[in-house]
Amino acid sequence: MASRIKSVVIPAAGKGTRLLPATKSTPKELLNIYDRPALQFAIDEAVDLGVERIVVVIHPDKAAIRHYLEPDPAYIRALRASGKAGLAAALAEIAVPDRIKTVFAVQEEPLGLGHAVYSARDLVLPGPFAVLLPDDLILGQPCLSEMAQTYAHGHMIAAMEVSPAETASYGIFNISGRSIGRSVPVSGMVEKPKAGHAPSRLAAVGRYILDPRIFATLRDLPRGAGNEIQLTDAIARDAEDLALTAFRFSGTRYDCGNHDGLMEAALARQAMVKDGSDAKVASAVAGRAKGTVLTGPTAIAGA
């Protein structure tokens, strides 16, 4: 069954201060997780979902992300001509299929995730849309595709169980009903609750399927924590009269926004590549794009 989700928003405008000094000159989304950049995992997950449009939110200083997403047929031909067919194939493999349009929104100031999502408002296609944070790498089954299979309406957020000691580092859900499969009805969330005050151990992770009314909510939302426009605040406001669901995904999540998480993810990715388990996922993604001609992204400046 085709996905109802036509657009994915990938926020990639952050400065990556937790990964300095590398991010002084290299966008954190382009740091390698063993054999490919973090951004590529996000692109692959969007392709697997079957969307028609990928909206990448960038800062003006992060032109390298645009360059990465542009195909380079001349370089591929040069690699093949020099006998490096394997490298040529690897480079060709990362191109976005031509059935998907890649566009860019520009976030001039770092005013929070909510502001990044709002910056994409004029570029997402009608209907519910997904938000995918490259920092949150999920290895295993593609998370957004799992979510889309059960999504019905309202807002849905990926979720995982954390230990009591870890709850202070996450947005923690208020569970309001009995689980149905992997879906858990929730009434809202508490952002980074103090130890002993968490309403549950179910934590939010960087995958969202959102009803488009979120844009109107974000437009009217005052700045919250850190003097930023917080996506979680907008979701909480909508949850007063809109269904909110937490989804327990099956994969393993890695926080690639810090040095330890990036290393753990690289080691896990290395193990997958070496034992061939990644090939099964890659084959499934390639199957969805079979028969397409690879073309480049279209640059559109957003708000």
Number of separate domains:
1
Give the terminus-to-terminus CA distance: 34 Å
Major sheet attributes: 9 strands, mixed
Class, according to the CATH hierarchy? Alpha Beta
Overview of this structure, please?
The chain has 303 residues and is an alpha/beta fold. The protein has one domain (7-289): Alpha-Beta Complex (Spore Coat Polysaccharide Biosynthesis Protein SpsA, Chain A), CATH 3.90.550. It is built from ten helices and 13 strands. It has helices at residues 38-49, 63-69, 73-81, 85-93, 113-119, 143-150, 214-219, 231-238, 259-275, 277-289; strands at residues 7-12, 32-33, 36-37, 53-58, 101-106, 129-132, 136-139, 155-161, 171-175, 183-191, 202-210, 244-248, 252-255. Strands 5-4-1-6-11-8-12-10-9 form a nine-stranded mixed sheet, sandwiched between helices. A two-stranded antiparallel sheet has the order 2-3. A two-stranded antiparallel ribbon has the order 7-13. α1 (38-49) packs parallel to α6 (143-150), α3 (73-81) runs antiparallel to α4 (85-93) and α5 crosses α8. The longest helix has 17 residues, at 259-275. The two termini are 34 Å apart. Mean pLDDT is 88; it is low at 283-303.
